[in-house]
Amino acid sequence: MKLRILTAVIGIPILLVMLLWVPLWVCGIAVGLLCALACYELMHMALGKTHRRIYFSAMICAFILPVISSFEPHLAWSVGVLLLLFFILSIEQMATFHTQQRITLEMVAVSMMAGGLLPLMLSTLLRIGQIPIVGRVRMLVPFIIAFSSDSGAFFTGRALGKHKLAPLISPKKTLEGALGGVLAGALMALLYGLLLQAVGFGVDLLALSGFGVVGAVVSQLGDLTFSAFKRQYDIKDYGNILPGHGGVLDRFDSLYYLTPLAEVWMFTFPVIWP
Asked: What is the percent of the chain with per-residue pLDDT over 70, rounded to a whole number?
């Protein structure tokens, strides 16, 4: 617990600086590095020691996609990078087909997911940041909801948890904790909206609070999804790069569902405006 809190105390100020004050392309590089590390963690879990070339190709793609999104809000270049990755992996599969260390369809699929799909989902964060004036404050919303939902679920579950939510996937999660996480997500979204109003932004508090509820549910579903992956391969954590939290995927798994939802929600409803 102490390591978990210490990592949060150090990490949250760094996160705020990256999201609010540094140039967006620097933020894109930081997200790209996280995506590359997450790509390695997922591939190492599912594929173990295999051809280094497919690790390299997938991790490069995972890094490039967020960087592209920090410059270009449209998907054309990102789709081109995804197609290039698939082309490279397909060539690798054919080239090793008659060898003892062949690249299988499973390896290609996992590499496309780790190096392409998941980074593309997280790249929506950078596209949100492209919006003039309000983009950077909107980028904070998924993090506020994900982290507050996680903390609310953790502490509510410890205090009141009795009914298991998904015992075969995540034995410690409870229904009471999940409801506490949804409440925490909604309240923190509302508080963030009030803070933005106080400094001069326009905010639809009802829409933002509603996103807090929906976002907290989606955030927990993302967490459960990546927990299910771990259970399939019988590991506790994806890595140990973040003391007290585990790997990159252990800490940021809930954002993979939440950031695409945030992009759609904020383009559909005028949640925050200048």
From this structure: 97
Going by C-alpha positions, the residue among 217, 228, 216, 221 that lies closest to residue 187 is 216
Identify whether residues 48 and 137 lie together within a single domain: no
Cβ neighbour number for residue 73 with a 10 Å cutoff: 14
Tell me the helix, strand and coil percentages in the chain, rounded to 5: 75, 5, 20
What is the domain extent for residue 249? 133-274
Angstrom distance (rounded) from CA 81 to CA 163: 45
Whether the model clears a pTM of 0.85, i.e. scores above it, the answer is yes
* Domain-ending residue, one of 130, 156, 187: 130
Give the strand pairing for 202-203 and 272-273. antiparallel
Q: What angle do CA 58, 62, 66 make, to 5 degrees?
A: 160
Q: Chain centroid to CA 72: how far? A: 20
Q: Are 124 and 256 in contact (CB under 8 A)?
A: no
Same domain, 202 and 274: yes
For residue 1, the model assigns a pLDDT of 63
Confidence of residue 2 (pLDDT cuts 50, 70, 90): low
* 87 sits in which H/E element: helix 76-95
52 and 65 fall within a common domain: yes
Helix (H, G, I), strand (E, B) or coil at 164: strand
Structure tokens at 170: 């995540």
Q: Are residues 198 and 149 in the same domain?
A: yes
| 119 part of a folded domain | yes
